[in-house]
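This protein record is not my work; I was only asked to verify it. Would you go through it and say whether the fold makes sense for this chain? Here is the record exactly as it was handed to me.
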Amino acid sequence: MSEPQGAGVPLTDAQLHATLSAMHHGLITMQARLDDHEKVLEKLLLVMQELTAGQVPNGFRQPKTVN
């Protein structure tokens, strides 16, 4: 079985720094997206709670009744 290409070859300080910097940036981006998703889920939960309580959620119209 062959080793992965580049295995055992140490990174230079500059390469290591660039790699860690890119990984750090990726983690920050992922955290921001998770925060955005969390906000959306919190709003959805609030709407679901209001609907369950028989309320018309903020931003929604009261449905018209059909006679």
